[in-house]
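Entry 14. Structure prediction run on the chain below.
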Amino acid sequence: MLPGRGRNGRVARLARVLGTRTAWTAVGDGEFFCPGCGGDRNYQRLTGQRRFSLLGVPVLPRGETGPVVECAACRRHFGTEVLDHPTTVRFSAMLRDAVHTVALAVLAAGGAGSRSALDAAAGAVRAAGFDDCTQEQLAALVEALEADTGRIAGEPCGAGLAIELHEALDPLTPHLAPTGRESILLQGARIALADGPYTPAERDVLATVGAALTICSDDVTRLLAAARTPS
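Output returned:
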C-alpha cells in the first residue's frame, strides 16, 4: 500500500481539512513564578473561544476554554492555580517577615532584657534579610508589641501575640518544605536559649510557632530538645 493510502493517511488528510482553533483574549497580567522557566516572569491571563475550522478558517463556535496563564518568556500555558505560588521576591519577603515576627515573639516572652538573646535575635533577623537590624531596634519593637497587645513580658502567649504569629506564618507555611518549617522554629528556639534554659513563657510561644507552622506537638518537643544540644 502506498504511503498516505491507509487509515492513518485518511485521518491526517481529514485533520488538515477539519480542526479546532482557539482565539485567546488577554483579561489580565502580572508577575508570577513560572514553573516552566523556574523563575519570576511576566504573565497574561487568557480566556479562549474555541471554533471548528475548515481548511484553517474558523467557522463554527465550539464554546469557551480557559482561563489559563501564559508565561511571557516561554509561552507555555498553565492553570490559574499557578498564581497561588508566590514569586521569588514575595517568598523572600514572607520568609523575612516570619523570622522577624518569631524573633520578636520570643524576645517578648522574656528575652528583651538580655543582651545575648537580643544579639541572637538580631543575627537571625539580619540573616533573613533585614540587613540593618540592631539590638536596639528589636528592643524598641518588643516594647511597642507589648503595648499593642497588652501583654506583660514573661506571660504565656496571649491571643494578640498568637494572632501576630499566625498572620506572619500562615501564608508562608504551605510553601515551605518540612525542613524549612523546622528551621524557623529552631531559630526561635536558639534565641530563647541564648540567655539560658527555656522559660515556661518561651515554651508557650514556641509551641504557638510550631502550631502555626503545622508542626505536630511531638515534633515541636523533639526540635526544642535538639536545639539544646550543641552542634
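The chain is about 50% helix and 20% strand.
Filed with the rest of this week's runs.
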